[in-house]
Specification:
Elements: H1 2-20, H2 27-34, E1 39-48, H3 52-63, E2 69-72, H4 74-79, H5 81-89, E3 93-96, H6 109-126, E4 133-134, H7 143-151, E5 155-156, E6 161-162, H8 171-179, E7 186-190, H9 194-209, E8 212-214, E9 216-217, E10 224-225, E11 245-246, E12 252-260, E13 265-272, E14 277-282, E15 288-293, E16 295-301, E17 304-309, E18 315-321, E19 330-335
Parallel strand pairs: 1-2, 1-7, 1-8, 2-3, 4-5, 6-7
Antiparallel strand pairs: 9-10, 11-12, 12-13, 13-18, 14-17, 14-19, 15-18, 16-17
The structure holds zinc ion (ZN).
Residues 46-47, 97, 101, 137 line the site of zinc ion.
Length: 336
Amino acid sequence: MSKRKRSLEPLALLAAAAIVVATVSTLGAAISQAATCNGYVGLTFDDGPQGGTTTNLLNALQQNGLKATLFNEGQYASANPGSVRAEAAAGMWIGNHSWDHPHMTQLSQANMDSEISRTQNAVSSAGGGTPKLFRPPYGETNSTLKSVEAKYGLREIIWDVDSQDWNGASVSAIANAAGNAQSGQIVLMHEWPSNTIQAIPQIAQKLSSRGLCAGMIDPSSGRVIAPTGSGGGGTTPPATSTGGGGSTGGCTATLSAGNKGSNWYNLNVAVSGSNTWTVTVNMPSPAVVASTWNITASYPSQYQLVAKPNGNGNNWGLTVSPNGQWTWPTVSCTAA
Ligand code: ZN
């Protein structure tokens, strides 16, 4: 009996949270964070990191609470090492997509080796870790290429669902392709089409409405699994810090704990002293803001949220993706 009662308590809390955020524009994202994952889909984005498009992709993924595998080209990783670090800091998984996107099966074994090894070095020296996954350009492979992949400890990953974003697919077509993927499937997308970036909120909503979450591709099996290191693997979040507050000019923002799960937590923010405030939230890297409610949010950088009133009063909140960092952010308040 006690077990049954305990199991009901989180549901009651979630129901209460759902009522609180019912007026929120980011309702879908907030709920998807809290929802149970009945399965995992592997979202992949190829051909980065090209700088500005990388920033757009990471912002869209983070604002919608999604994780993805990013197959980088070595030439771009080498030219944009800061983007590689941003990908890693955002909790994404970075794979190898060759140095400059040739038809690998038309290359000599020595040139295949060069394409792969130079990219391994470019990603790791940029701070992205050493890739364990390889996606051959155009999905073209053969036994010689597989032997070179094996030499570098890489697992070859093709895809189950082609979003056709590289072929001019519309926003809704991309959202349908990715959002209707089945549990365990891997979806091909790219960093550079603007339609892909625009489709991300719909992809998040469609997956969450079907009880599916974005998963990681396990290098040892090639299967899509629950993300490790940030939940799903039995990790227990450490206790969070006690309530912080910040006041620099005419108002005070006070944090209090909301619901939390294995790889997310909510913070409630109460502002006093003014109705025309600006609250700045500085996230401890690599923790990032996944979604917010009752504010107009802007993000001057990956780890900073600037909140302003949106007509819903002085009580608002945010969902955090800790990425292993469970220390609360710091806040400061300025009256406008
Ligand atoms: Zn490609």
